[in-house]
Amino acid sequence: MSCNFRLIAGLGNPTPQYARTRHNAGFWVLDEIAARTGASFSADARTRGAVARIDVQGEAVYLLKPMQFMNRSGGAVAALSRFYRIDCEQILVVHDELDFAPGTLRLKRGGGHGGHNGLRDIIASLGSADFWRLRIGIGHPRERTAVAGYVLTPPGPGDSVLLESAVVRAFGLFPDLVTGKLDRVISEMHTVA
């Protein structure tokens, strides 16, 4: 298994009231990567997103935070991938995942949207589901009717610690992710529940 990611899109909602909510876990990871690599985000009119560029082994890797709301994330991802001619399999989308316990990290390629509106819009905009996903477990409220409110509220203290740890671990996996050492990444994720 080998792959080099040229576009890493973190999903979230752009306004300050959502900054610490569970649905913004993708933004948290990209902010961590940018902070630790010295990259800075700037507004990009082409994508209506915030974009940062880092160089990895002489190759440009673009970090993208779509700045429209979650259910409109796809336009930014599609615009950036078209402009830089980035293939679907070179795109990694970082997002929150209800079906995993808080702090769990899992990597996979392809699949459906599982009810996640950001993924649904990206699939529709790209015309393909064949991109990679780094899923960050946020837990589930147990009641289907409570999901919308749950993802749009900050995690409690215990879950916050687990999610902050997951963000740091995601950054630790970043060098292997972008250089295609995905077997090592998956193995590392599975050694931490």
From TrEMBL:
It is found in: Cytoplasm. SUPFAM superfamilies: Peptidyl-tRNA hydrolase-like (SSF53178). GO terms for molecular function: peptidyl-tRNA hydrolase activity; tRNA binding. One of its GO terms (cellular component) is cytoplasm. Keywords: Cytoplasm, Hydrolase, RNA-binding, tRNA-binding. NCBIfam families: pth. This is Peptidyl-tRNA hydrolase. The lineage of its organism: Bacteria, Pseudomonadati, Pseudomonadota, Gammaproteobacteria, Methylococcales.
